[in-house]
Structures are given as C-alpha cells and as structure tokens.
Amino acid sequence: MSLVDSHCHLHFDPLRDDIAAVLARAHQGGVSHMLCVSVGLADLGPIQEVMRHDPGIFGSVGVHPNETGAATSVFDDLVRLSAHDRIVAIGETGLDYYRHADLDVRSQQEQFREHIAAARKVRKPLIIHTREAAADTLRILREEGASEVGGVLHCFTETEEFAKQVLDLNFYISFSGIVTFKNAQALRDVARLVPEDRLLIETDAPYLAPVPHRGKPNEPSYVAHVAHCLGDVRGVSWERVAETTERNFFALFQDAA
Fold first, then answer.
1. How is residue 130 annotated by DSSP?
2. What is the layout of strands, in order, in the sheet containing 31-36?
3. Residue 129 pLDDT more than 80?
4. Alpha helices in 38-195 (DSSP H)
5. How far apart are the first and last CA of the chain?
6. Less CB within 10 Å around the terminal CB: N or C of the chain?
7. Distances (CA, A) of 179 to 116, 158, 236, 245
8. How far is CA 230 from CA 6, 114, 209, 234, in A?
9. Of the candidates 126, 125, 60, 140, which has an alpha carbon nearest to the alpha carbon of residue 95?
10. Res. 146: pLDDT tops 80
C-alpha cells in the first residue's frame, strides 16, 4: 500500500541535514511520493537538491504569505521558475492574518493574486495557506478565477462551510497531523464530510507532528498516522485512505504523473 505526503518541507532543518535517513524511514513506512513545498523564491535550489535524492519527490514554487515583501512583484519569477523539472504546483501562497500590519495585508493580497495569475498562465494547481483570513481567501480565489486551475487548501483547519465553498471552487482539502490532536474534534467532523475524491493527506513536516509524535520534528513517514486517523473518522480502512489520497494526488498534480 502506497502513501503520499502531499505537503512537506524536506529542505528545512532538521530534515535536510538527515535527508537520507528521513527518506529511508519514509519508504520503510510505505511513502512513495512527497511534494516538497516552497515558501520563498530562493527555495528552488534547495528543493532541487532534495529532489536529486529520490525520483518520488516533486516540488513547487511560491512565496508564503508570511514571507511577502512590500510592493514586490513575483509573477514573472513564478512563471519562469515553474518551468523547472518536477515543479508541479504554484505555492504555497494565500493569506495569514494571525500576525500582520495593514501593509502586510495589502502586500499579501497583491502577491496572492499574482500567484493565481501565474498558476493560470502555466496551468499548474495552487497550494493555498489560510489563517484567520477565510473570507478574503475565498473572495480573492473567486475574483481571480482560481477555479480554472484548482489546487489544494493545505493543512486544513477551517469550518464545514468554508470547506464546501472551496470544494465548489475546484479545490481539494488536505489534512495534516492536526486532525489527530485531542482538541481537534471539530476538524475531525469536517474531515468526515469531505468527498472521497477531494481528500489529501500531508505532514507539513518538519512542523505539526501527529499524535503520538506531537512535540517532535515531523517527517513524511508520520503521514501514516494521518491516514489511520482519517480511516477511523470516516469509517473505512487506512488502506482505503492511502489508496484514495494517492489517486487524488496524481489527479490534482498531473505533472507528477
């Protein structure tokens, strides 16, 4: 049975410094493919270095909203960098209002729009991050025609209503180790309702390690815990979750197929 980690940061410490062992544990745990996600334009080089270790690793290009620079256009760079081998998505991008100033909000929104425009230009799906910005995230996705390329709401922590609206916009929903946390019952309730053909799983490694590894650095091998949790929540086997999410990964990220 094959698992796919649809969102991780293998180029971040401490994973990068122990990459051979991290990948060995991933394969031993049944993880066949991983998407190494960019948070800044300078990430392409480190991501390419990680991809050299394993043909089952793919990458993205994007600027995380917390890394947004004021009045800095990224459209041309995103289009250019997305042409590199095994780059299958634009992102992660989106909005994060957890810590922000007014200037940051404006800059985040401008660069979010540019990411969507670049994704439409190169016909690659989007990887979306949203935190305390649900209404603006939905509004900008609609205004910029993001449904043309679709994508994924990664590390999902929003409401059932938000989930319904992004599903209507041609997006998938990915659950991380957060779904295993004791205080995450509301999130598990949402996870029960996501259509099987729109479901993905991830680690967001090295962050957000699932139970029973909470508080430790996360890694792709731990995505199995997310699959087991979702199987329990949805009343199916974890093997079915693995099979479904693997199929969905390649349906969404078609350049990885």
1. E
2. 3-8, 31-36, 57-61, 87-96, 126-131, 151-153, 171-175, 199-201
3. yes
4. 44-51, 75-81, 102-122, 134-143, 160-168, 185-193
5. 18
6. C
7. 28, 12, 16, 16
8. 15, 34, 15, 6
9. 140
10. yes
Helix axes 134-143, 102-122, angle to 10 degrees: 40
Rounded-to-integer distance, Cα 99 and Cα 152, Å: 23
**R_g of the chain, CA atoms, integer Å:** 17
What span, in angstroms and rounded, lies between the C-alpha atoms of 40 and 206? Answer: 16
Of 21-30, 90-99, 101-110, 121-130, which gets the smallest average pLDDT?
101-110
**The tokens 């649900």 sit on which residue?**
134
| pLDDT exceeds cutoff 70 at 70 | no
Please state the pTM of the whole predicted model: 0.97
Report the 10 Å Cβ neighbour count for 210: 21
Report which of 30, 25, 41, 22 is spatially closest to residue 4, judged by C-alpha positions.
Answer: 30
For residue 73, the tally of other CB atoms under 10 A from its CB is 11
CA distance 92 to 68: 11
**Residue partners of 142: CB distance under 8 A and separation at least 6:** 169
* pLDDT above 90 (res 202): yes
Nearest to 220 by CA among 36, 1, 50, 97: 36
Give the pLDDT of residue 132: 95
Beta carbons of 211 and 184 less than 8 angstroms apart: no
Q: At 127, which amino acid appears?
A: I
Q: Which of 95, 59, 63, 85 is nearest to 76 (CA)?
A: 63
Cα dihedral sign, 177-181-183-186: positive
Q: How many whole angstroms separate alpha carbon 230 and alpha carbon 234?
A: 6
- Residues 6 or more apart whose CB falls under 8 angstroms from that of 120 comprise 144, 145, 146, 148, 149
